[in-house]
Amino acid sequence: MEEEIELRQYWEVLRKRWIIVVALPLIAALTSGIISFFVMKPVYSASTTLIVGKKASESGQAAVQMLDNSVLQANLQLAKTYAAIAQSRTVEQNVIKDLDLSMTIAQLDNMISINPVKTTEILEIQVLNTDPELAASIANSMANEFSKAVIDIKKVDSVSIVDTAMTPTHPVKPNKKLNVLIAFVVGLMASVGLVFLLEYIDNTIKTSDDVEKFLGIPVLGVIPNYEVGKQG
Q: Is the pTM of this model over 0.70?
């Protein structure tokens, strides 16, 4: 019974300031929608994957040698080294020259992430950019320049490109619907918190229940609210 009374009190608090509860989430969602749809530029992702490994020097060698467990483990351990080479200053500088990009190495580096694919020898080069065609061009150029660098530095026999980067057609961010939903939920939580805060700091007496609550005395009677002098 006590819980039912408390829930009723909470509902009354929310109902009393329902405008805040409704308006704040809507304003937050609308603001997020405007920013997501009209202000933020869409970002596209293009990626290319490649394998670094040794190949058999003679065609007569068994193909099983290529899949030898020790070789696979060694290549897996080298994945981080290859990732560092791929994102090195030398490789990125060559990409800038190759594509004649008007950006610094630091700016290019911020667009690129190198991800070793777990339990495989495959490296993924991912590029994020607001221009989908440029993102694909950078990813493919990165793969080519990395191939040259890793062959020269690590003296590996081969670098095979598994998938070349294609021009993306859909942006990966911003997620407009998710942004609006998150803004609405956060706005709703903030509005509820604000309503209860206002109720907590409001110590004025407005109802007979407030009299009993704050003064601790019973209410004997209530004067009805009516307009004096109004003719029926």
A: no
